[in-house]
Amino acid sequence: IKEAFLHAWESRPHRAEPLYEISRGYRAQGKPKLAYLYARQGLTIQYPQHDILFLAQDVYDWRMMDEFSAVAFYMNDFVTGFNVTKKLLEDNKFPDSERARIEENYAAYHNQLARMEQEQQLRQETARAAQKHMELEKKLEKRKEKKEKQNKEKKGTKVKDNKAGFKKRKK
Length: 171
Hints:
There is one protein chain. By secondary structure, the chain is mostly helical. The chain is 77% helix and 0% strand. Helix 1 (2-11) runs antiparallel to helix 2, helix 2 runs parallel beside helix 4 (57-72) and helix 3 packs across helix 4. The protein is rod-shaped, with a radius of gyration of 35 Å.
């Protein structure tokens, strides 16, 4: 069946329906990564204004976006998945029976992006703390080196003073 849809798409590459069906089939088989490839390509195809036969308006109105929304999460394409799901909800061209599921997908993307933002903030805070720690370590090292240098200079001065003040006895 996939070959027939690929042949259909190859013949009419400005049509998204074959890509939608392939993506849907792979998702149903538990292969979201393969489904993602076809759904992503299908999203780029606009409604074919000059075709009139056998157009599946719903594929262009909402189904391709919904398909992409369903599989992008598994590819860690959270930002695009979130944006597509948001547009899907804003356009509101899907049946009411699909609303709860689509809203759940939107919430899952939103929560994932919030987690990612928190993790990013934590990484930044950790990096700043590590940088500050390194700066303090450098300051301490410089102080230590300065103190060692001062101690060497003091020892050297004492030795020189003793030698300068010491006179050899004549024989």
